Amino acid sequence: MKIGLVLSGGGARGIAHLGVLKGLLEQGFVFEQIAGTSAGAIAGALYANGYSPDDILKIIEATPFFRHVRPAFTRMGLLRMDKAEDLYRTYLPHDSFEALKIPMHVVATDLMEGVLTVFESGELVRPILASCCLPGIFEPYVINKRQYVDGAVLNNMPVEVVEPKVDFIVGIHCNPFSTQKPITSIKGVLERSLILAVRSKTRERLARCNLLIEPPELSRFDVFDWRRARDLFRVGYQYTQLIKPQLIKTLESVL
């Protein structure tokens, strides 16, 4: 039975994907296909390239990502991501979907056509950056004269991309909704509004996962909490330990 892995976007919270993935691999899960949006595209591509979850965490902790973006000086966004291409090619030097050890699918939003684009062949690094291009923060990313922004605008949980290719889907969603955290700033209002908008489009896709993992403790973290990478990894890993009996039962049923 073929198992697919779907990874949501979620900014820094996406680091929790790695902790969950480590726990799943320890239980014996093997993935035949991976699809990811934004942070999920980064985590998925690096894992599909052969890096372990612990390796990827070390890369994140050692890499000052924001030194590799620059002011946009345009009306399209505050920052540009094109300088980050060289950074990603350090870890993905082949820059090719075909060279990955596991088939990977990256989604981004075509800003002009208003449609979702699935990248799954050819160059790899630029589609990953396009998938992470948060509107209003980053200038739209141009590939083949088309402007792209974050895939989460249209699809933060691209289940349907791998659905025809596998028999069982594991989804990791890193944007749990909580009413416990008070909103005390403009940043908080914007973040909560974004999560609500994205989640309303994601609910039906979450239900299509045969196994959905959504660590509730992630609601305590902001999408910009990059400096808390190890804490986010720990939250993901510890949650998989908590649900280990369910994971064992699930794996027994699909093998």
Description:
- The chain is of the alpha/beta class.
- It has one domain: Cytosolic phospholipase A2 catalytic domain (3-Layer(aba) Sandwich), CATH 3.40.1090.10.
- The protein contains 9 helices and 10 strands.
- The longest helix is centred in the C-terminal third of the chain and has 22 residues, at 186-207.
- The radius of gyration is 17 Å and the shape is globular.
- 41% of the residues are buried.
Helices, by number, come to 9
Euclidean distance between termini CA atoms: 6 Å
The CATH architecture can be given as 3-Layer(aba) Sandwich
Portion in strands? 15-25%
Q: Any idea what the shape is?
A: globular
Mean pLDDT: 88
Question: What is the CATH class?
Answer: Alpha Beta
Number of domains: 1
Helix fraction by DSSP (H/I, runs of at least 4): 25-40%
CATH fold-type name:
Cytosolic phospholipase A2 catalytic domain
- For the CA atoms, what is the radius of gyration? 17 Å
Largest sheet: 8 strands, mixed
Low-pLDDT segments, ≥5 res = 66-73
Overall strand count: 10
